[in-house]
Amino acid sequence: MRPQDLIEKKRDGFVHTPEEIAFLIRGYTHDEIPDYQMSAWLMAAFLRGLDENETRALVEEMLHSGEVLAHPDVPLPKVDKHSTGGVGDKTSLVIAPAAAACGVAVPMISGRALAHTGGTLDKLESIPGFRTALSLDEFRSVLKRCGLALIGQTREIAPADRKLYALRDLTATVPHPSFMCASIMSKKMAEGIDGLVLDVKFGAGAFMKEFDDARSLAATMIDVGRKLGKRVSALLTDMNQPLGRWVGNAVETREAISVLHGNLKGDFAELCIELSAHMLVVGGVTQDPDNARRSIRGAIESGEALERFRRVIKAQGGDAGVCDEPDRLPGAKHSRVIIAERSGYVDEIAADEIGRIVMDWGGGRRRLEDAIDYGAGVELHAKRGDRVDRGEPLATAYYNDEGPADALCNRLQAAYRIAEDEPVARPLVREVL
Question: Which of 67, 146, 190, 220 has its CA 20 to 30 A from that of 183?
Answer without folding.
Answer: 146
